[in-house]
Amino acid sequence: MSRLLVQTALVGHTDRQLRHQLREALRSYGFEVLGTPSAAEARSAAADYGLDVFLTGGSLDGRTTAVELLEELAEEYAVPGVLLLTDPSAGALYELGSPYVFGCVTWPLSAVQLHATVRSAAAHGESLRRARALRAVGRRLSGVQAELARALEAGGVEPARLAEPAALDAPFSPREREVLRLLLAHKRPKTIAAQLGISPSTVRNHLKSMFAKVGVASQEDLLEVVLASGDRVDG
Prior knowledge:
This protein is an alpha/beta fold. The chain folds into two domains: 3-123, 3-Layer(aba) Sandwich (Rossmann fold), CATH 3.40.50.2300; 127-232, Winged helix-like DNA-binding domain superfamily/Winged helix DNA-binding domain (Arc Repressor Mutant, subunit A, Orthogonal Bundle). The chain is built from ten helices and seven strands. It has a five-stranded parallel sheet with strand order 2-1-3-4-5, with helices on both faces. The longest helix has 30 residues, at 125-154.
């Protein structure tokens, strides 16, 4: 089979038997599948392989939650994530508010459900890669702006105050605007939560609220629309 038609999935879980069952189920649908019980190995696999989707549930290192690891791999390596729920309690389902959880499967699972959910999540890879490229461009532009400001100051010219990041005409709350400014400054949701003194779940709630107001379904789409807008975040 041509490599262009094969998608690569990474299964991360500390339960060896469950990990094996998931790998075999995905292989039966034509996926190339890697498996790991380690968060560090998951990061290495995301960096070294062209992963199309990451499936995990529970903490792999006792420190980073499954959702936090999904967010990290989506932001850093543009790998869409699927959350595996072995205990679909209200608390676990609440984690689905993350903009980087592109689907969930419950255990015990249906092979058909697994296949459909993982394929659907993998389809978000292109939007994640586009958003990562936009962030990289933004960082380079920020560096150029800083260098220009220093050069002007060295020449005795006071540089004009850089414009605030653009936003929409949407009725964002003051806290939503703070979250949006930090997103535009390339901050991750976990970092935003720490900087604002709120929980990661609260950051996710603000993101979902902004998605609904703007009419988008992901953080990448929100940032693209914001960057294309001429309004101000702090208005």
